[in-house]
């Protein structure tokens, strides 16, 4: 028996197949204009790539902002709960999840069983999210995936404005003044780290800390955040799937959670 | 004897000459890259256009964020204080000043003598400022000065995101879905009105209310704000000069303030 978890985020849609022990298939696609079409495409691709028949899937659980648009779900669960369960699946010792997605960021505190004790979410302000970095990569005329690479080893340029709009003007001025793209890129990652730090401090951070979401793929951001929070931060190549994994684990049945 | 007030804002720099009773000359110029150069240019233009000799000026008072860069000032005063004094000069019955500038907004509460009792300022977030409208005018491919004109009489389109960055995407989507520029423009002015309302409610609004700053030149925004606050809002063709006027009045001597 398999369960499927689908996480329709504002920027990327993720889905995984869970066999009760392992994630045996995964798919990520841009969400685009229609969460419903994307959800169907994600499911079809998942089955096809995993060579899985529809009837082998016992249950499909949806999460993420676009879950309301999916007609084929057996269950809908909030992303906060799914992030908790997903992080617990990765490592039972995780007590804090820091997730930075394409358009939001959240900090979720967990108990020893992966239940949510507390959380804070920012989905109102583009600062400190993937969107901030996307806007800035555009100004720097680089791909967002290059930000961390070019920033490595550079002295971070101080970016005074937290606001995406004001920081964008600041970056334009800095470039006009001859500041290097490398130092600006480092400064921008530091800005996201600072904004995340203030969100995390308001909830309180407890060990172990797990870093997830698309933006967690920036190694330099992870380093800045570790320094700022003064804790080791754990992640996984699958961390972008954490919501989908949590949904699949919940679909499979809660018992898989308890060690 | 004359006094001069200079207000170097983030977007526009304003200066006025005061003769103890009336504003006899005024100038407004874009601030541009160098507040210092702009300040000097504003002063020179002011004297030239007003046909005033430098020695007729007894005192020059500076305000606005760029005042620190001006070497020729006799005195520097915060924009909050200057806005209070300036509004009091316009109308002794003003108790609340709502100022929306190019990159910030503030609400200042005054006593019967124009002294500041309380204030709140937003200069961290582009939402609810002229910058928000500037970004949106660009998306709508109209001049910022046309926003209020085209919006007049249109049913305001609801803009869900307060954040400039997210609202920008929303406007792009709305246009793709065929919403009219007129209704979007009205919706954007309503968004600024809502953001201003929440700032004003936190300080508390008392009659009379004076509306100033570059953004106050949008008649429709004034109407939205009056409806939302449920008070009459007063303004003046000179309202964009309120900070400079306050500075000039302070320079002239406090006695001119008391009726
Ligand atoms: S601070 Fe900037 S990025 Fe954040 S909500 Fe305001 S406009 Fe948006």
Automatic annotation (TrEMBL), chains A, B:
Q: What is the lineage of its organism?
A: Bacteria, Bacillati, Bacillota, Clostridia, Peptostreptococcales
GO molecular function, a single term: iron-sulfur cluster binding
Q: Which domain of life is it from?
A: Bacteria
- Where is each ATPase BadF/BadG/BcrA/BcrD type domain found? 4-251
**Protein name (Swiss-Prot/TrEMBL):** CoA-substrate-specific enzyme activase, putative
Keywords on record? Iron, Iron-sulfur, Metal-binding
Tell me yes or no: is Iron-sulfur among this UniProt entry's keywords: yes
- The protein's organism comes out as Natronincola peptidivorans
This protein's cofactor list reads: [4Fe-4S] cluster
